[in-house]
Structures are given as structure tokens and as C-alpha cells.
């Protein structure tokens, strides 16, 4: 795979994933107006256990199938890839049913544990109902995810991207429409509206599955042609042996996929108690909702870039690793880190600079919300980097190291929550998350250096260059924000939206101009990709030509 094709494929999925996350961001504004801060907390109570059970239900199989299929396709053995797909689909259906039944029946236990003795507006019965309604999605999502993994293994990212976009559109339509009808038309409670909102996950999953089945029918002829024209002898392995290899790949996926849900589960189990110990029990649930739901939605936008990288990264690196092409492998790893830093670092810094007006634009002015967002945004960079390092380790068959890295982070997160929240309140939870992810990233980077014989020298150099550009961007954005604050109230809802828009335009213009004129963009993306980009979008873009 050429550098240009690798970057182009990655950016296509990145744009698709970014659009999905963008949809997931804009719906939050009207949703917040309907259900409020405590409604967001209730939504989080339901979604965190669901996400954990979903990771267990899929057991990392869809992404492991992506790696498995990529490996055997590289060897020309399409029959073994298809065997794994058939067996994996049966497994996903069974696991989906079992996980649904388990979560549905244990919902009251989860509700009692999360609420504890916190002084809040949500009852155990309401939380249990929310968990049960969202659990229905477990019947569909695992099977849909497996089909996505199969297509990704064939280096085909379109079905994944399109199905996820359709899924997101349906979910948002049902979530907002249902919540509006319950609250505004039927005069129902916020708990009833959240119930409809969580059940939207099941309806949207059905829509995504329908799209994926359509893609399967459309492409089955091509996939069958690969089988007919296969020239190598299929691998002589039994189904149990295939599953043994698959689960060797899958375990790290399920563990790494559980990273953010596990961190959030630690928050739901310890946050309220720690806040009570700090004498802030009355605002505990409200602060938890701001932390785990409302600000989290905003900071996950740049993290979606890393998620997209992971989708394309594992099959590509697995192929290079299987073919023992060290030159291509090192180049792919280096480009992935550089692209991630180039796109994510300015995004998280920009969110942090604009934290107060940004929170006001989406949810209304709130000092605590703006403060949490300001501290939480930079942590998103570590989210993104851990997604990348975990994917790289999986691609080079060092899955165990990703698990160890996660374990280190989880332990530090738990200790950090118990200690830091008592002293710093809600910000302590943010700091604990940052410390945990930073430790995980440090450990996994060291393992990549060791097992892939990869030098981070160039990555560090590019990171420094991007950091300088980001610093200049931040100064420009902060200056613009200060000027606007003299003209109008930057935390008034509509003026906050205008403030965020104008400041973001200035910041992005400064950053991209500097990236182009200094040659940083050219050195990261490569001449071949930028030449094609320039030819397609016109020659007005002047790409910098300075050296490395």
C-alpha cells in the first residue's frame, strides 16, 4: 500500500467518523434543553453498563475478524477468511442474546450500586428501567459489528462509515423526536424521555444492520469471485483452532475497547461517594453528569480522529507485519502518530481555550461546566494516543502489552479518584483520568519502541513543530476571545455560538496557514498525497517547501 493510499484511506474514514461524531455533538444542544443536566446523568447511568456489556458481548471479535481476514487475505487464503466470518456470526448472535438477558436481569443491581446513598433526583427504579431499555440493542449490534469487521479486513471502509452514519441519523431522530413528544406533547417525565432516548440505540442498530446487509448482497459476487480464483491451499485448521487464533487477537480489542467505559464506570461507582467526602454531595450528580456526559461529548470529537485511524491502521499494519516489510511498517506507524498529533493537538487546545463560551453555546452558561471542559479537553489527546498505540500493538502481535498498559492506567485512575476528588472536587476526577491515560500511553509507546524496533525521534520532532504552531494558534484564539469579550457577553447563548464560530475560524486559519507555509503539513502528509489534493481542489493552495 502506497503512502498516499494509506493516508487517503485513513482520511476518508476519518472524515466519515468525524461527521458521525459531529452529528453526535449537535444533537446534544436540543437534547440538553429537553432533559437538563440531571437527565444527562440518568442517560450516563444507563449507557455505561450497556457499553461494558457490548464490549463483552462482541469480545473484540469484530475488530479481531478485521485483523484475521486481513492476514489470510494477504496470504491469498480467502476461504479461511470466509470460514471465520460464518463461525464468528454464529458466535455474535449467541453472545448478543446472552449479554442482553444478563444485563436486563441485573439492571436493578447496577442501579443500586451506582446511586449508592447520593443525594440526587434519580431513583433506583428509573435507572434500572433505563438500563433495561438500552440493553435491547445488544441483540443487534454484535452481528452488525462483525459484518463491519469483515469488510474492514478486505480494506473496504465504506460499509462501516455509511452504516454508522445511517445509524447515527436514525438514533438522533428517534432520540430527539421521542424525547420531545414525551416531554412537550405527552407532558411526561424526564425519566420517560431518557427511556425513549436509550431505546433509540436498538432502533438505529436495526437500520445499520439493514445497510450492511445491502452492502453484503451488493458485493457478494466480488467476494465469491475471490474464493473461486483462490490459488493457495486453504489453511488446514479446525474450527476450534480458528477460534483460538481469533480470540488471541480479540482479547486485547475487548480490553482496549473497554478503556473509556471502565474509566466512566469507576466514576459512576466512586464519584458521588468521593464528592460526599469532600462535602459536595448536593452537586455530586450534577457534576457527574457534566463530567461523564456533557463535556465528554464535546471532547470526544477530536478523539474520533484516532478511532478512525484505528479502523484503517490494524489491517494495514497487520498486512505489513505479516509480509515482514519493516520499511513500510515503520513508515505507517510514524505517519499515524504524526497525523494524529497534527489533527488532535490543536483541536483539544482549541476546545480548552474556548471552554466557557463553548459550554455556554451548547448547554448554557455554567461556571463548573466551563471549568471541567477546560481541564478535560487536553486529556482527549491521551484518549486518542492510547487508541493509536493499542491498535499498533495489536497489529504487531503484542496484544498483551496493550492490556498491561490499560491495567496500569485503570489502577491509577481508581487511586486518583479516591484521593484527588476529595481535594479538588470534580476536577480531581479529570486529573485522575489524565494521569491514568498518560501512564498507559507512556507504557505502550515504550513497548512499540521495543517490539517494532521503532524510533520515535521523528515523531517527537514533528510533535514539537506542531506544538509550536498550536501555541501560536492558541494565542491568536485567546486574543480574539478577549476582544470579543469587550464587545459582547461571550457566555450568552447566541453570542457564545458566534464567539465560538469566529474564534475557531481565526484559530484554524492561523494554524493551517502556518502549517502550509512552514512546510509542516507537507512533511506530515507527504508530497504525493498533497499533490493529488492540490490537483483535485485547485492550485490556490501553496504548499510549503522547506526541509524537514
TrEMBL record:
Keywords: Cell membrane, Membrane, Transmembrane, Transmembrane helix
Record keyword Disulfide bond present: no
Major location (coarse): membrane
Keyword Lipoprotein tagged: no
Subcellular location: Cell membrane
Membrane-crossing segments per the record: 12-35, 47-70, 91-110, 130-147, 168-186, 192-217, 246-266, 298-318, 339-360, 372-393, 402-420, 426-445, 466-488, 494-514
Membrane topology: Multi-pass membrane protein
Protein name per UniProt: Polysaccharide biosynthesis protein
Organism: Ectobacillus antri
